[in-house]
Structure formats: structure tokens, C-alpha cells
Hints:
Layout lengths: L1 H4 L12 E5 L8 H14 L4 E5 L5 H5 L4 H4 L6 H6 L1 H4 L6 E2 L5 E4 L7 H13 L7 H9 L5 E5 L6 H9 L2 E6 L3 H25 L8 E6 L7 H14 L12 H8 L14 H25 L9
Parallel strand pairs: 1-5, 1-6, 2-4, 2-5, 6-7
Antiparallel strand pairs: 3-4
Helix pairs in contact: 2-13, 8-9
The structure holds adenosine-5'-diphosphate and magnesium ion.
Amino acid sequence: MREVFGTRPWREPGDTPAIISVCNFKGGVGKSTIALHLAQHFAIHGYRVLFIDCDSQASSTMMFGYRPDVDLDEEDTLYGHFHNPELLGVRKIIRKTHFHNLDLIPSNLRLYNLEYEIAGYMAKNQNMEIIDLIAEAIDTVVDDYDIVIMDPPPALGMVSMAVLQAANCMVIPVPPSLVDFASTVSFIDMTRTTMKQLEKIAGRGRPAYNFIRLVGSRVDESKSMHREVLSMMRQVFGGSMTQSVMVTSAEIDNASSRMKTVFELEKPVTSHEVYNRCMRHLNDVCKDIEQDVLGTWASRAGGRV
Ligand SMILES: Nc1ncnc2c1ncn2[C@@H]1O[C@H](COP(=O)(O)OP(=O)(O)O)[C@@H](O)[C@H]1O
Ligand SMILES: [Mg+2]
């Protein structure tokens, strides 16, 4: 319909595609959940999206319907691309998905080997350029997309570093607990230090992010502790935090145990009330990030979603 009516929201060629890393070095904070819903939100609204699963745990790949270590070989993932970039070309490992306009580079356990293989390559060749492997891969195909979303592993290892080099936007999910808040602060601090070191050792420019957004994740507003920590986070992170937050919802748990996102459910698993509330929060978070992306496109700057 959008094609017929000429209302596709695609970027103009002069607009920089948004290459978003949904990161935090803790597991279980809702990275994959937010990354997947965000990717589907953009695809549903007509953008051209590439989702790159960079986590060897491959939970996002599973949500696209694959049994990562049964259905996929190592050549099907970024690992294959790293080993034989000339032969394969990154386009070969991009798959269509059941979502129109949403393509996938999947992952499986073997991707974990990249961690020490990248480190080994750097030590052997005394060369840090390999850290650009994901950036270069994206570069060869990015003309076909408006949005690239990367789901990195929950650790600041080599693959995460390569993701941070490739990204031009960051979305950081933070659950409102003191422990998660503290570890997010160390994540941001460590990332900054590592980037600075990379800049010094490799004599390279630090990646510039068009926006860095913190999103309250797995928020339970009935808990006074969550409300308190959330308000503290708003004071500390200021305008870098989205107004919207992702609440803890039984609908997300239920959907994911059916290998679906909430956007894919045909009807509520719990109740209409729980479902509607969850959808409202998901849509608000996704729209906030969409607004950030549009703000970086010269052809749309200032435009509302
Ligand atoms: N807002 C939420 N409400 C309820 N369950 C959630 C929520 N966010 C994530 N989960 C569940 O928590 C688990 C871990 O989430 P996930 O997104 O995979 O975290 P990460 O990628 O950071 O490790 C998954 O089973 C997911 O379904
Ligand atoms: Mg994950």
C-alpha cells in the first residue's frame, strides 16, 4: 500500500542510515527483547531493516524461527564472513525473514570463537584494523537499508568492540535496580576508556554517535524501589533517557515462550488489559527511538512520527 501511495518512509540517499547497537554488558536486561521489537516496529512502519545477531547465545536468531546450532552452519553467521570475506561477501549471509523488509544475519554458538580469533589476529599481525570487520561488512550493504540493528553479546569483548565501532547510535536498556544502574555506569565508563585506548593505539578516530539513549527496561511501577531508582536515573542521565520505559510484562514472557514477539501475537496470551498495556509501552519506546533516528536524517529533521 505504501508503495502504491508513495508513502514509504525510506530515508533520502543523503540521510545517514541508523546503525543501532542495543547494548549493555549485562545479560537478561532486555537487550534482545528491545532489539527485536524495535526491528519489527521499523519494518512494520515500512522502513528497510537489517538485524544482525552478534551474540553467540543467538536468542534473537531463535526468535526468527531457527534452531541456531542445528539449522545453521558457522558460514551462515558473521563468523563465516570473518573467515572468508572475499569468497562469501556479507550479502550471502543475509536472509529474508517472515517479516517484509526485515532481513537477518543470524548467529550460533560458533560465533563465540570470534572473540579469541580477533584477539589472536591482532596479536599476530600487530594490527587493530580487524576491529572494523562488522563496520566494513555493513558498509557494503547499507545502501539497501534505512536501519541496521545489532544485538551484541553481554560482555565488552572483541565482538562488542567491533559492534561499537560499527554503530552510529546506541540504545542502552537499564532495569531500574541499583545493581543494574551501577553496572550500566561502569559499562559506559569502560566503553569510553576502551574507545580512547583504541584511538591511542591504533591512531584512529573515535566513533561518533548520533544519539545515545538509555531506556528503562523491565520496569515494575508497582515497586517503590523501581520508581525511586528510575527517578534517580532520570536525574543522572537527564535528557539521554527516553521518556517512555519498557515495563515488566507477563505478555513478553508468554510471547517469548511461544518464540514470538508481542507484535507477532494474534491475540492476547494473558488478558486484553495486560496486552494493551504492554503494546502501549512497546510502541512508546519504539516511537521514541524512531523519533531519534528521524532527527538524524536531514530530510526529516524536526519531523514528527
Ligand atoms: N519487559 C519485560 N517483561 C517481561 N519479561 C521480559 C522483559 N524483557 C525481557 N524479558 C524476558 O527476560 C529474558 C531475558 O531477556 P532478553 O531480552 O533476552 O535479555 P538480554 O538480551 O539482555 O540478555 C527473556 O526471557 C525475555 O522474554
Ligand atoms: Mg540477548
